[in-house]
Design brief:
The protein is of the alpha/beta class and about 375 residues long. It has helices spanning about 15-25, 55-60, 75-85, 100, 105-110, 135-145, 165-190, 205-215, 225-230, 250-260, 265-270, 275-285, 290-300, 310-315, 320-325, 345-350; strands at about 10, 30-35, 50, 55, 65-70, 90, 115-120, 190-195, 235-240, 245-250, 305-310, 330-335, 335-340, 355. Helix content is about 40%, strand content about 15%. The relative contact order is 0.13.
């Protein structure tokens, strides 16, 4: 039996933050019923596609059920209310006030089902002067100051490699808080309301810069924090053939071995000069040889913490992942089978099905009456 077997989740979310959170609930055994507008949620039309089906939608919504319904229609709304009476969790991702206009806000729902865990995922939370402000992942990162800590050589902020605010500020906090709330329901018999703000949940990700600013009264304005470009031991260095090495030799034993391998002067290994000068010296040494030369040097040592900056293709084909069968499970999209992108859940705990499918739009309309 999976950990959340018997738990029923009503999912009003779209795009990435909420669907990833409810996907993890689904993989942990919950029955997740996706409530979609007439015509389906926008992610169903997102690229890339196989035939007329979105791969992104399928990856995020596999194993769920789909109901296509008009929430502004009174008879359809009544069907949803009947479903809520028998559910354990409700997750929504509208702007503050939308669920109230629909008659499905927390104050109303808790009278229908006192045991339900109600989770709202928004950009800025349900309260405060920014609560109605529109935004997406990049906007939250920009306003948080985190985007300013990731810049190119000329100081221009770099678009992040992934949707950090959506996932780390939305999906994961929603998932973990829903689990905590379900524990609380077991103890008290009462549900609760969860206000997940993607903007505010970026605060733990800013721990380095905030700690420095609070302590020194001077907040960093670029990638100069010690774990963000300011420390030689934790940095990125370009090779002669314009490839890159990532060094994470924080502990002295790693740093000492790294310095021995590249044969630096004692004043560098003992850090007797400024970090800027040490970084400049190491850059010069690393840039004197091709990546293959350094890779051979560092791959023969386990205790260096210096690795090549690989591509996603390298990651997908990593022998370590292949040996562990990380991409062994499949998802069927438009009658084609492709490797499944796993979630962060422990496979031995949730036992994901080997063949997965996303629901067709309105496939489970018959479960609401």
């Amino acid at each position: 039996m999976k950990p959340l077997s018997g738990i029923k989740v009503i999912d009003f979310t779209t795009l990435l933050p909420g669907p990833l959170a409810t996907l993890m609930l689904c993989e942990a055994g919950a029955e997740v019923i996706k409530i979609e507008k007439i015509g389906g949620e926008d992610m169903r039309n997102s690229e890339p596609t196989l035939g007329n089906e979105s791969v992104l939608f399928a990856m995020l919504n596999r194993g769920k059920k789909s109901i296509e319904i008009n929430l502004k229609n009174k008879s359809d709304l009544k069907k949803i209310i009947n479903l809520i009476k028998k559910s354990d969790v409700l997750v929504e991702q509208f702007r503050p006030g939308v669920m109230k206009r629909l008659g499905l806000d927390w104050q109303t729902v808790k009278k229908i089902n006192k045991n339900i865990v109600y989770c709202s995922i928004t950009g800025y939370g349900q309260h405060g002067i920014k609560k109605h402000k529109a935004g997406h992942d990049l906007n939250y990162l920009a306003e948080s100051g985190l985007l300013k800590l990731s810049t190119s050589k000329d100081g221009t902020p770099v678009i992040p490699f992934s949707q950090i605010a959506d996932i780390a500020g939305g999906s994961y906090p929603a998932f973990m808080n829903i689990l905590l709330a379900l524990f609380q329901v077991q103890k008290t018999g009462l549900g609760c309301y969860l206000d997940v703000s993607m903007y505010e949940n970026l605060i733990p990700l800013a721990w380095l810069g905030l700690s420095k600013g609070i302590t020194e009264k001077s907040f960093p304005k670029e990638n100069s924090v010690h774990l963000n470009g300011g420390l030689a031991r934790y940095n990125i260095y370009e090779t002669k053939d314009k490839k890159f090495l990532a060094l994470g030799a924080l502990e002295n034993k790693f740093w000492s071995k790294f310095c021995n391998i590249i044969n630096v002067p004692k004043k560098i290994s003992e850090e007797k000069i400024s970090q800027k000068k040490i970084i400049a010296a190491i850059k010069k040494i690393i840039k004197s040889k091709n990546e293959k030369y350094w890779k051979n040097k560092f791959d023969n040592e386990e205790d260096v913490c210096c690795t090549s900056v690989n591509s996603l293709e390298d990651y997908f084909n990593d022998k370590h992942l292949i040996e562990k069968k990380i991409f062994a499970n499949k998802i069927m999209i438009n009658k084609k089978s492709i490797p499944l992108i796993p979630s962060a859940l422990e496979p031995r705990l949730v036992k994901v099905r080997k063949i997965n499918k996303a629901p067709k739009l309105g496939q489970h309309n018959d479960i609401v009456k």
